[in-house]
Design brief:
The complex is a heterodimer of chains A (183) and B (139).
Chain A lengths: L12 H9 L3 H21 L7 H14 L10 H22 L5 H6 L5 H7 L1 H11 L3 H12 L4 H8 L3 H19 L1
Helix pairs in contact in A: 1-2, 2-3, 2-4, 3-4, 6-7, 7-10, 8-10, 9-10
Chain B lengths: L2 H10 L2 H6 L2 H14 L5 H7 L1 H26 L8 H8 L3 H12 L20 H12 L1
Helix pairs in contact in B: 5-6
The chains are: A mainly alpha (183), B mainly alpha (139).
Chain lengths: 183, 139
């Protein structure tokens, strides 16, 4: 009869954050490995251009690690990270506008500009992304945190500094506008 | 399209872009950047808090006022004892300034305030927070 191998305990995000605060680089590396794809998915959905996605993900982690002392467990680390990603994306769009590279609306829609890519992605996804670009930032982030990440309103509210009721209103406005856009 | 279909569509969004991300390369890049610029210490962050800045500015104002007052008194041959300089500085403040000072000293930090991401900007502040910030800037 085979002996059961002891299962190595997987450190929680909180334990990894504490380790990073103590100077453990490997803890930071593990947090990146754990959350990078979810962050990339959120940023891409929120309108981050494909060409900039790597840089935006890195910048988000850098800001998060440098400001981790302000994370007090009011929500999950991933949720907090996604909201920082939203700020990083907002700043990137603002810089692009100042540099007059492309207008904001086009910047937010520029993710899948390639016609082939667009065909692969599917018309519905393309139009949803287009619709998301037309929402306010709060509506867009609440919608993605709720519909894509499956978070409760209370956690969304804690992460975005609003009330659960207000988050619910933002979500329903977003759904209404997206339905109209996709109709 | 109903709400459930919309949510299903949203769950597929960005999946391909996320799959294309080279996580190992991202890990290396982030760790390298963290090594280049070590994070700011807790003590430095505390001093960057607006409430602490207010307290520090108030103390500096009081000390400065006290020093000027003491200098004037000395020039008039009326050197005061140690604590009187600060008292003289306080005497120079108006009622409103004294009330504001008391509020700051009594409530140096707002523990109940919601915590925002580390990189929150002016755009992220609510109207009451902006008013509070303006008040603090106006003195």
């Amino acid at each position: 009869m085979p002996h059961a191998e002891p299962v190595a305990a997987v450190p929680t995000d909180a334990a990894l954050i504490a380790a990073w605060q103590g100077g453990d680089e490997q803890a930071a590396a593990e947090l990146v490995r754990r959350h990078a794809r979810a962050l990339a998915r959120f940023l891409a959905s929120a309108g981050a251009p494909d060409a900039d996605l790597d840089d935006l993900v890195q910048e988000t982690f850098i800001r998060a690690f440098r400001g981790v002392d302000r994370f007090r467990g009011q929500c999950r680390f991933r949720t907090w990270l996604l909201t920082i990603g939203g700020n990083v994306l907002k700043d990137a769009v603002r810089r692009a506008r100042r540099a007059k590279v492309v207008p904001l609306a086009e910047e937010l829609r520029a993710t899948d500009g390639d016609p082939h890519e667009r065909a692969v992605a599917g018309e519905a996804e393309w139009r949803l992304r287009e619709g998301l670009g037309g929402l306010t930032r709060m509506q867009r982030e609440v919608f993605l945190l709720r519909a894509q990440q499956g978070l409760e309103y209370a956690e969304i509210a804690a992460a975005l500094g609003t009330s659960p009721g207000a988050a619910r209103v933002h979500y329903h406005h977003a759904v209404k506008r997206l339905k109209e856009h996709l109709a | 399209m109903n709400e459930q279909e919309l949510e299903q569509l949203a769950q597929r969004l960005g999946a391909r872009a996320a799959e294309r991300l080279d996580v190992a390369r991202t890990v290396q890049a982030v760790v390298a950047r963290l090594r280049e610029a070590p994070r700011v210490s807790v003590v430095t962050r505390l001093w960057l808090q607006p409430a602490w800045l207010k307290v520090a500015a108030t103390v500096a104002l009081l000390l400065g006022t006290g020093a000027v007052t003491r200098g004037l008194w000395r020039s008039q041959g009326l050197a005061p004892a140690g604590g009187e300089a600060t008292a003289a500085g306080l005497n120079d403040l108006s009622t409103d300034q004294l009330q504001q000072l008391l509020e700051i000293v009594e409530h140096p930090t707002d523990e109940a305030a919601p915590v925002y991401p580390a990189d929150a900007s002016l755009d992220d502040l609510t109207a009451p927070q902006l008013r509070e910030l303006l008040r603090s800037l106006e003195g």
